[in-house]
């Protein structure tokens, strides 16, 4: 892993469109039945990139992430235009990581070679489950066989690829998850993102869950599935480097590390969030979530930013703690003190160590333990108080 305090600058680009809305998803994604004017959106992305670069000045881009929505609905030339705009306005590191989220359907997999030519060097596939009944329950449009074919195509097109699975699904037993996860690791090569199914307000699953028509595992069984996940992945050489992300050493998603290490990134596109340092002050930015409104705003003002909050030292420190303690590498308390202007309370650290929730390394780094991860929010709240 690279040094947690080294200079990194990420660019996140949000493509907001999907073919259908998954019933568990609360991301900023939109279904449109008319064709999307991709050239217009590409011009708007380029304009917002130019405006952002003009505002913050020179940066060396170390990672780019095309997220969504479903970025694999973009034509390769749209992706190429976005990457060209980034390269025009900022210096791009020679070893830049360029990730694109993709649906594992055969139609979208046919674009993989085009994405590679455009400059993408890593894909993240939304597989979500490896059996058709679960995929149907999750509202996915692909079959398990189609997903594995897409993974095989990704393997041929890219040196680096990852895929997502959702666990703690209704009626899922540890034995079922063990078998599925073991199979996934055989296909995954270097990186897996493994998320517990959570019921988010405002989604169709929220209504079904409230009505008793969708039952997810209780806290005890869910914790067992989490423990199974850690044990199997570690045994197969993909330990957790973050609560939900597992990788072979050196294969971590560098873009996501930018977020978790509290580093700087630009948020481009509808509903994208950014963290930008301007004149020594950290700005938290967010753009208009509505795709068509965002485009019109960019065309008239040069950007789609709706909120631009200046974070004070305490807010920055809280965010650093909240994000950094998600990582297996933990945080350097000296960096926390430099950001916040005060040290963490040694008595609270001692108490949490006694309880087995955190560990302190020989170099002073603070880490949440395996036992502490399931109660991470409480650990963070205790340290930040």
Automatic annotation (TrEMBL):
**Family annotation (InterPro entries):** Aldolase_TIM, Coproporphyrinogen-III_oxidase, Elp3/MiaA/NifB-like_rSAM, HemN_C, HemW-like, rSAM, rSAM_sf
Q: Which UniProt keywords apply?
A: 4Fe-4S, Chaperone, Cytoplasm, Heme, Iron, Iron-sulfur, Metal-binding, S-adenosyl-L-methionine
Specify where it is mainly localized: cytoplasm
Q: Which cofactor does it need?
A: [4Fe-4S] cluster
Please state where this protein is localized. Cytoplasm
Q: Where is the Radical SAM core domain?
A: 3-239
NCBIfam families xref list: hemN_rel
Family indicated by similarity: Belongs to the anaerobic coproporphyrinogen-III oxidase family. HemW subfamily.
Report the protein's function. Answer: Probably acts as a heme chaperone, transferring heme to an unknown acceptor. Binds one molecule of heme per monomer, possibly covalently. Binds 1 [4Fe-4S] cluster. The cluster is coordinated with 3 cysteines and an exchangeable S-adenosyl-L-methionine.
User: What protein name does the entry list?
Assistant: Heme chaperone HemW
- Taxonomic source organism: Bradyrhizobium aeschynomenes
